[in-house]
Amino acid sequence: MTEPHTGARILSGMSQQSPPPPPPPPPPGRSRGPGSGPPGSGSGSGGGQQMPRWAIWVLGAALVSLLLVMSLGSGDNRESIAYSDLRTKVAADQVDEITWSNDGGSITGKLTDGTEFSSNGPNEPPEDDLALFREHDVEVKFSNPQPSIFEVLLPLLIPVVLIVGIFWLLQRRAQSQMGGIMSIGRSKAKTYSTERPGTTFADVAGYEGVKQEIKEVVDFLKHPERFAEIGARIPKGVLLVGPPGTGKTLIARAVAGEAGVPFLSVTGSDFMEMFVGVGASRVRDLFQNARKLGRAIIFVDEIDSIGRKRGAGLGGGHDEREQTLNQMLSEMDGFEATEGIVMMAATNRPDILDPALLRPGRFDRQVVVPLPELEERRAILEVHSKSKRLAPDVDLDVVARGTPGMSGADLSNLVNEAALFAVRSGQDEIRASDFEQARDRVLMGARRESMALSDPEKEVIAYHEAGHAVCAAVLPTADPVHKVTILPIGMALGVTQQLPVDEKHIYRQDYIEDSLVVRMGGRCAEDLVFGVISTGANNDLVGSTELARKMVSEWGMSSRVGPMAWGSSGEVFLGEDLIHTRNYSDETARVIDEEVESILRKQEERCKQTLLEHRKGLDLVARALLEHETIDGSEVTRLITLAGGTIEPSDAPAGDDHPGVDIGPGRGPDAPVTTPGDALTGSQPPPAPPT
Question: What's the mean per-residue pLDDT of the chain?
């Protein structure tokens, strides 16, 4: 039986012979070892290895260095003098010989003391200067310098090098694109080895039963001889099933940190591409890489993306997703044995998985990872609070009691929000009030400080919330009131929070009927005080109608319909039927509608009678809300008692040490309603949610 849960979240229960030794791992140098990169990403072997990319930069640097050396080597150590100084030295008989270049007028020569010099003059020496040189016996030579072979070839080599480089780059680009197309069928799984640090089971708080089942798989891969002695065979596949945020992927990461064998991790969406056959090819490559590693664990996250029931929907039998699933079924337990490989997967939608995937031999064991209970929430809060500075007034037991139905991800977010509130207020530690504000922020949203409500609107909202609070306080089986506020929070204009004293897993009919009365308290209070109703009760009515319909059609709480369950109006498409069909006649539907109306009418009369009996208490609570805007459950009880009302002893109000759970009236009287799911914050599904 599915076990419903009260509070801000819904807790649903789910409602060997000795193996042969694995093949030896491949020798080094031929295949990839653990932790050496993604499977299928190794380079090919053989003699046709490509030139490394850094070699191109080395060749370019060598060419530039050669040019620099040649340019520096072309210089000389001659003394440079001006042409006028040269004439003066010639006149003073200090010049022995001169060599005049016809190309540019470059002049070199030697003085009488043996010193070599250089100078620049006209392209051709003037006649007067030649006469001066002959008069002083200076030997004059004329030269025609020839360029070096490098200077001749360089202008020709540069265009050739550029053209060759462009063609080489184009070829490399084409090869990379072709390599990407050819490798599209390779698996994208990431391989983790024992040398890689990661999460361990010590980092997973609670869930001792889940960890025990997972540890058996890890122990088998580490010590297979212990199981082989008595002929035990480890399950080939373990499927982690649970609501979102419960830590399924975290548990898988802990297996990767604990296992002494390689751990291959991949998501279900990694198998799907736009090309036909890619998914099946990647599945084959994934298992081939696992076989090369000997013993290994393969983890597929969100397996429902490829494991949906075959033949469902419009894709037909040739759907690419179905071909991928067929290949996975064959690899897991097909014609070829896969001893030594354990398959793990996680999903929060087990109802849409193909039956062939869930049969023994593939996923032998389904491990349910439910929402954490009280003790588990306490342990999870301790893990997430290790690095936080907590004030002495913070009691994690109180925080755990005030968060029923929260998953591990919700609790992590709660602790972080509390730390953010502490930083905003300038504190150096997290206090209990920060956790209180963080819980309200997570459950209801941020407070809207900028919203301005008129006095008539505030009065209507105050009586609306007071109606919920009074009904919750005086009814014998209703959950006690924790907090009532008329401050706009999130999408709500006012909220009434209730906290169950104990966590409930089954619900009696009288508890559900009292819950209906509490939901109708806001609407009935408006009608009683103002003589007119508003839009604030829209989502209250939606939740009440849904709850009453479940009482009649699913839980057998109608004497007229009897002990029959006629199904629920759930998801239209869950992998089986494209169109939801009704399995009862029109006459039965009419009877169900009449019974739903009868239940709602009866509880509405109870609500009106309750508010009439406690009219003075209703007025006092509404006035207190108008004056203080927020009051706690003990103040509500005190005001009702002061007005002369009676409180059932079993309904002691929740004190400050019990953080509340939002099941209040909702957004207030003037809030527009879009969809039932996001209408009024306080009117979430009733305490007995659908199975």
Answer: 75
